[in-house]
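Batch job 17 of 40 flagged for manual review because the log was empty.
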Amino acid sequence: MTGETLTTRGWRPGDRRADVPSMLRVDQAGEYGATRIYAGQLAVLGDRHPAARLIAGMALQEDRHLKHFDAMLAERGVRPTLLQPFWNVAGFALGAATALIGPNAAMACTAAVETEIDKHYAEQLDALGSDEPELAETIREFQAEELEHRDTAIAAGAENAVAYPVLTAFIRAGCRAAIALSKRI
């Protein structure tokens, strides 16, 4: 450490440091889950429905996010969540189920998920502070794209879904649970 001590760099004993491996694990799991949700929706909607075109575009961005976090996990030697096989099935099932309800419900799913992801990314940015500038920049970029997905879903009729408040509350609660579990397992 070229003459610097931890205290001269701003860290003091007792300070809380961001748990970066946990952040990477949960972010990779979330992007994986998003790709599976969209895969389930597209399996039901096909490729001709106007909502499917929007979903396919969002899915491409989520796939790019996933590849980025996959690379960050590998670079830093962080293991992915052990729940990935579960998120594979659960994500696809959620996507397929919401698409079966209808295109507005599929969009409601996106709006709900992206609302939680926005909050989650904001909490991560707060925890990082000035630490990990590369990770913080990635999170900021992806957070902006997730907000675009939410806004696209709302513009495409998410709020017109049957039982929208109940549906989105259920999905948001599931997202919060998935985040908590993927950090640890």
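Reviewer: the log was empty due to a logging misconfiguration, but the result itself is present. The two ends are 33 Å apart (CA to CA). Unflagging and moving on to job 18.
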